[in-house]
Specification:
Blueprint (H helix, E strand, L loop, with lengths): L12 H9 L15 H10 L4 H15 L3
């Protein structure tokens, strides 16, 4: 799942996605330059996620997908 354009302003959405499909299946995205990057980073940081879930969403999932 790519979070860009996903209504990140809805508190609890990312927590719900982590509980439903797992943080290892979520990619951080912003729809930049259309959407505000700070809003999307803030949405992830403001969710009830642990450090590992944030690391997966912000970085590790993309690295795995792109074989980096």
């Amino acid at each position: 799942l790519d979070l860009s354009g996903g209504g990140m302003f809805r508190y609890g959405l990312v927590r719900y996605l982590c509980d439903t499909v797992g943080a290892e299946r979520i990619l951080f995205g912003t729809d930049y330059p259309i959407c505000n990057l700070k809003m999307y980073v803030g949405a992830i940081m403001g969710e009830r996620l642990n450090d590992r879930e944030r690391e997966l969403i912000f970085c590790q999932n993309a690295k795995r997908l792109l074989n980096l």
